[in-house]
Design brief:
single chain; alpha/beta; Aminopeptidase; Alpha-Beta Plaits; eight-stranded mixed sheet; four-stranded antiparallel sheet; 12 strands; 17% strand; globular; binds 2-acetamido-2-deoxy-beta-D-glucopyranose; binds zinc ion
C-alpha cells in the first residue's frame, strides 16, 4: 500500500466554490436487482439465519399520521426512510409484526420469505478467481475500456468481500501509477484498515493553491453492499477513461477525488459472514448489544434522538459524538485534506438526494440555494435514468437525524457554496 503525499498547499482565498454535501441513496431499481446477494454460505452457514418467517412489506401510509406510523413500526426494520412526503414505507418485519401491520395498514408483500431469499442469493466473488491480471489492462479506450474493467472484476455481478476489494484497488494503483494511489485513513474497532483511494490526473489544474478536492464515502452502513460496489465502479471509470473521455479528463484536471469505499469495514465483513442485515459497526456499547450507527455518530450537533434510544437499536447513535473509532478516523483524515469542495456519502435503498441539515429543520445552511441547485441538477440526471429522485434537506426529506455525515462534512471541516455536482 502506498501513501499519497499530504498536500500542504494553502487554500487561497475563501472564494473557491465549496461544498456540495449530499447523501445519495442509490436507485432502488439497482438495489432490487440484487437485494440480498449474500454471505459466504460455505464459510458461514449462519449468515442468513435468524430471519425465518420474516417478510419485507410495503406499508402504505394512506391517511395515517406519521406519529402513529412510527409507533406501529417499532420493532421492525425500516428499509426506506420514512419521509414526510412518503406514501409508503418498506419494512422488514418478523411474522408477528407482519401480521399486525397487515391488520392496521394496506400492505404489499415485497419479499415473502427473507430467509429463503438470502439462501438463494449469490455468493461474493473473490478477485483471485479471475486470474492474475490487473484491472483495465487495455484501458484508456474510453467507455468500452471502462466496461472491460468492470467486467474484469465482476463489478455489477457479484459483491466482493473487503479483502477482495482491497486487492482490486491495489491492482488499480499498480495499473495506473500516479493516477490511483491508496492510503490508510485509520483502523476500525477490529483493527481492519480503512482505506482511501485517490484518483487524480496528477496535474495541478493550473490553479493557484492546487486543485479542488472531492471526497466520496460509502459503506457507513454495513448491509448496503451496492454502495461500495458503486464507488468501485466510479473509481474504475474515472481512472480508466481519463485522457479519452473528455468529460472525465476535465473532471480529473479540475478535481482530485478521494474515495473511501468502505468506512464500516468491520460491519461490512460481519454482514457478509454472520448477519446479512447488519447495519452498525462492531464496537461494544454499555449494554450487551453491539454496534454504533456510524451515520448518527458524526461530531457535529450530535444528540441522541430520544430518551428511548438504546444500544440495541439499529440506529443507536453512540453515547457520545465520535465514539465510533471509524468516525474518529474518518473525520480526522478528512480534516487533513486540502481545498475540500464537495462531499458525497452513498447509501441504499431509496431514490433520494439529500443535503444539510439533518439535525434541525429550522437550521438553514448558508449555501442552501446552491445546495438545492446542485440537487436539482443531480435530480434531472437521475430522473433521466428512469429512477426518479426526490431531493431536499435531510430534515425536510426524511426527519430530524443528528450526527450524519453530511451535516458534519458541510459544517465542520470547512463550509461554503457549491459549483456543480458531477452527477455521481
Ligand atoms: C493492527 O493491525 C496492524 C497492521 O495492520 C498491526 O501492525 C497491529 O499490531 C494491529 N494491532 C492490534 C492491536 O492488533
Ligand atoms: C424528477 O422526478 C420527480 C418525480 O417524478 C419530479 O417530481 C421532479 O420534478 C423531477 N425533477 C427533475 C429535475 O427532472
Ligand atoms: Zn445507509
Amino acid at each position: 500500500m502506498r501513501r499519497f503525499r499530504a498536500n500542504s498547499r494553502r487554500t487561497h482565498g475563501a472564494t473557491l466554490a465549496l461544498f456540495a454535501v449530499t447523501a445519495l441513496l442509490l436507485a432502488a431499481a439497482v438495489a432490487h436487482a440484487v437485494p440480498l446477494a449474500s454471505p459466504d454460505a460455505a464459510a458461514t452457514p449462519a449468515a442468513g439465519a435468524g430471519y425465518a418467517g420474516h417478510q419485507v412489506l410495503r406499508v402504505f401510509l394512506d391517511k395515517h399520521d406519521l406519529a402513529s406510523v412510527r409507533s406501529a413500526l417499532q420493532g421492525t426494520d425500516i428499509w426506506t426512510d420514512l419521509a414526510l412526503t412518503s406514501t409508503y414505507v418498506d419494512v422488514r418485519a418478523d411474522a408477528a409484526h407482519a401480521a399486525q401491520l397487515r391488520t392496521q395498514f394496506r400492505t404489499e408483500v415485497l419479499i415473502a420469505d427473507v430467509e429463503a431469499a438470502m439462501t438463494a442469493s449469490t455468493q461474493p466473488a473473490t478477485v483471485s478467481d479471475d486470474g492474475a491480471a490487473g484491472p483495465g489492462r487495455n484501458a484508456v479506450d474510453g467507455e468500452v475500456a471502462a466496461d472491460a474493467v468492470s467486467a474484469k472484476f465482476g463489478i455489477g455481478t457479484n459483491y466482493l468481500g473487503y479483502d477482495a476489494m482491497r486487492s482490486m484497488w491495489d491492482a488499480m494503483a499498480a495499473q495506473w501509477p500516479g493516477r490511483v494511489t491508496v492510503a490508510k485513513v485509520g483502523a476500525s474497532y477490529e483493527n481492519r484498515t480503512i482505506a482511501a483511494v485517490k484518483v487524480t490526473s496528477g496535474k495541478d489544474g493550473g490553479k493557484e493553491g492546487g486543485k479542488k478536492t472531492v471526497v466520496v464515502v460509502s459503506g457507513l452502513h454495513a448491509r448496503e453492499w451496492i454502495a461500495p460496489a458503486a464507488t468501485i465502479n466510479i473509481m474504475s471509470n474515472l481512472a480508466s477513461t481519463y485522457g479519452t473521455v473528455p468529460r472525465v479528463t476535465a473532471l480529473l484536471d479540475t478535481f482530485d477525488f478521494y474515495f473511501v469505499p468502505i468506512v464500516n469495514v468491520d460491519g461490512y465483513e460481519y454482514s457478509m459472514t454472520k448477519d446479512r442485515l447488519w447495519r452498525k459497526n462492531r464496537q461494544p456499547t454499555s449494554s450487551s448489544c453491539i454496534g454504533i450507527d456510524l451515520n448518527r455518530n458524526f461530531p457535529y450537533k450530535w444528540s441522541p434522538p430520544s430518551s428511548t434510544a438504546t444500544p440495541c437499536d439499529a440506529t443507536y447513535p453512540g453515547s457520545k459524538a465520535g465514539e465510533a473509532m471509524e468516525i474518529t478516523a474518518l473525520t480526522n483524515w478528512i480534516t487533513t485534506l486540502p481545498n475540500l469542495v464537495a462531499f458525497y456519502d452513498l447509501h441504499a435503498y431509496s431514490q433520494l438526494w439529500m443535503y444539510p441539515f439533518g439535525y434541525a429543520c429550522n437550521a438553514q445552511p448558508t449555501d442552501a440555494a446552491a445546495l438545492a441547485a446542485v440537487a436539482s441538477t443531480a435530480q434531472a440526471a437521475m430522473n433521466a435514468t428512469g429512477a426518479p429522485f426526490a431531493v431536499g434537506s435531510i430534515c425536510s426529506t426524511i426527519y430530524e437525524a443528528a450526527g450524519s455525515s453530511a451535516d458534519w462534512a458541510y459544517a465542520a471541516p470547512r463550509s461554503h457554496s457549491v459549483t456543480r455536482s458531477s452527477g455521481a
